[in-house]
Amino acid sequence: MSRFFSGKYDKLVPYTPGEQPRILNLVKLNTNECPFPPSEKALQYAGEHTRPLNLYSDIEGVEVRRALAELCGLRPENLILGNGSDEILNFAFMAFCDEAHPAAFPDISYGFYPVFADLNRIPYTEIPLRTGFRVAPEDYYGLGRTIFIANPNAPTGLALTRAEAEEIVKRNPGNVVVIDEAYVDFGGESCIPLVEKYENLLVVQTFSKSRSMAGARLGFAAGSAALIRDLNTIKFSTNPYNVNSMTLALGLGVLMDEETTRKNCRTVMENRAYTVRELESLGFEVLPSAANFLFVRSDRIGGGELYEKLRARAVLVRHFDKERIKDYNRITVGTREQMDILLKNIREILEDMP
Description:
- This protein is α/β, with parallel strands linked by helices.
- The protein has two domains: 19-36 and 259-351, Aspartate Aminotransferase, domain 1; 40-256, Type I PLP-dependent aspartate aminotransferase-like (Major domain) (Aspartate Aminotransferase, domain 2).
- It is 35% helix and 14% strand.
- The protein has helices at 40-49, 62-72, 84-96, 112-119, 162-170, 225-235, 245-255, 258-281, 303-312, 336-351; strands at residues 27-28, 79-82, 103-106, 124-127, 146-150, 177-180, 201-206, 219-223, 285-286, 293-297, 315-316, 318-319, 328-332.
- It has a seven-stranded mixed sheet, sandwiched between helices. The protein has a four-stranded antiparallel sheet with strand order 9-10-13-12, with helices on one face. Strands 1-11 form a two-stranded parallel sheet.
- Strand 5, helix 5 and strand 6 (177-180) form a beta-alpha-beta unit.
- The model has no long low-confidence stretch (mean pLDDT 96).
């Protein structure tokens, strides 16, 4: 750090994103991207309808919000767009947390939650996952805190039912509950149908995973009109033009081709089931995932060692050093070809073990 860096951030530990190496013929299964590109239909629409780039983008993303509202069964005023869902999550920490409203989230979950809390100087509590890495809804009842829950959770892939999530919202009427649904399209139950029922519920989703737009950066949140106004106050106080014109056009094109999104999700889920069967046949423990990734461990090889051996073979997965999960690796579900390459290399690594 330079001598000019503000002391209020001198203890800030930034989020560590998944590695983005440039390795020839890399099988990249570490950052939960969709293995399929946006459809030709979506790309063609974006190419024909991007707003002239010498003009500012649409501040409110009117057309995208209108299409999302129709898809979600909401009104446009129930929605806000962001530069990826991460930006919206940061807005939520800024808008709904402070000394009087500290944050709470699981101790093993999305690594950006404690970073956003520290960045905004918000006190927070990390609630330990139960046995089997389970989020126990009862641990969040009546907390008197702003709650953030990734559902399905990351990196475990485990999901709460909608009824379980709803009970958390009901039991915290005086605080906002943020349900982060980045992976919900791969087998989870979305809480978006509950948005107009509970004024304290905010549901955050992303176009990065199921909608193949990780590089374009588009996310959204659904909530009561009052909560969305709060978030817009933060947005318009930081960066009103937060979503660029090309991303808005592509996002609308993707929404106009929902059939391709659903087809891609089905393929990922089929590949997930196939990979689970194959890994379990090799003796791996695989947590039941409702996401586009698997959380796995083996008694025959440590998580860190498997990660390194796979990386040496140009297969990249995600390993975490945190004590409770250091024996595990998180593996993105890719194409069938990618999963076969992964499995082939794991078999060879295990065969070489003493």
